[in-house]
Amino acid sequence: MTRKTPSSAAVLSGAAPAAVRRTAAGERWFSAPWKDRAGRVSPFKSAVLAGCLLPAAFMTAEWCTGTFTGRPLNQAMLMTGVWAVWFLLLSLAVSPARAIFGLPKLIQVRRMLGLAAAAYTVAHLIFYVLMEGINLPFVVSEIIHRFYLTIGFIAVLGFIALSVTSTDAAIRRLGRRWKLLHRLVYPVAVLSLWHFFLTQKIDVTLAVLPTGLFLWLMLWRGLPASVERQLASLLLLALAAGAATIAVEYAWYAIATFVPPGRVLAANWHFGRLGPRPSFWVTLDGLAVFVAAIAWRRLPVHDKIGAWLTR
Ligand code: HEM
């Protein structure tokens, strides 16, 4: 959701592409998401945009074909919530991906991914309101009285603040304060994940997985710049994120439930009926990044991919 401040020359120079709108002051505030800064259609941005729209398209198709089981509004509400979390994580993954794979141009899609997360969150809230029969006084009272909804609502406000300050004009106007403001994405992510945990019944597996990946992203951000691309760091990071995931899951069961946390802990080493725990998938994802980084450096593909991204 965060992005670098574009140079004013890049924003204002030359004729405005057709897709670009300008404010009265001449600042660009909107450009078609499938176009690059020069106004050309970007295959990469177009592909990412299609990816952002895909869950919405699937949900619409399921709705229209009657595949949504039970209560469609409830299902749409749950699915948009889950997609909001995943798009938020994807937007946070852009910085590590840029650094590890040496692809600075990935920055072009960070805003799009962040806005997709915000859009799915707003859709989630709208579906909730519809589910409650658009009874706004009831919805407000629920948000005030139910803690998991209160923190969800604060996260929504954070998403809105991040979104409205994501325009080129806002980035220019806020200058250095923009970067500071957009650090808000971290508490927003924590609140969103916390809300996710609280919405689950006893089994919080669905919430632990994205939380583990969020921990990987945060641990990577904690690395000194000198080692953030090193293979050894990525290997240790995979193991550390897996261990942190186990710790969070254990703490949740110990503090918030009556489930014996030791039994959940033991399930991390014995894949029983439950199958692999989230810590396994988080470690595996971390190792996948490690292996991809090795492959990326060895295989002569990065020039081609880099060129595709800059087209
Ligand atoms: C005012 C704001 C919000 C409201 C009113 C709200 C409401 C709800 C409700 C009623 C549920 C279902 C709980 C249940 O089944 O018992 C839910 C689940 C969920 N919400 Fe929210 N939510 C809000 C904000 C957010 C935000 C900001 C996010 C993340 C970005 C989010 C992500 C989720 C997720 C992932 C689930 C679980 C989905 C599942 O179990 O499949 N929600 N929310």
Summarize the structure.
The chain is mainly alpha-helical and 311 residues long.
Textual characterization of the structure:
With 311 residues, the protein is mainly α. The protein has two domains: 1-6 and 41-199, no CATH class; 202-306, no CATH class. It has helices at 8-12, 43-65, 72-101, 110-131, 136-145, 147-164, 168-174, 176-181, 185-199, 205-221, 231-256, 261-266, 278-298, 302-310; strands spanning 21-22, 28-30. Strands 1-2 form a two-stranded antiparallel sheet. Strand 1 (21-22) and strand 2 (28-30) form a beta hairpin. Helix 2 (43-65) runs antiparallel to helix 3 (72-101). The chain is globular, with a radius of gyration of 21 Å. The structure holds protoporphyrin IX containing FE (HEM). Residues 78, 81-82, 84-85, 88, 121, 124-125, 128, 143, 149, 152-153, 155-156, 192, 195-196, 199 line the site of protoporphyrin IX containing FE. The site of protoporphyrin IX containing FE has 20 residues, from helix 3, helix 4, helix 6 and helix 9.
Question: Keywords, please?
Answer:
311 residues, mainly alpha, 2 domains, two-stranded antiparallel sheet, 14 helices, globular, disordered N terminus, binds protoporphyrin IX containing FE
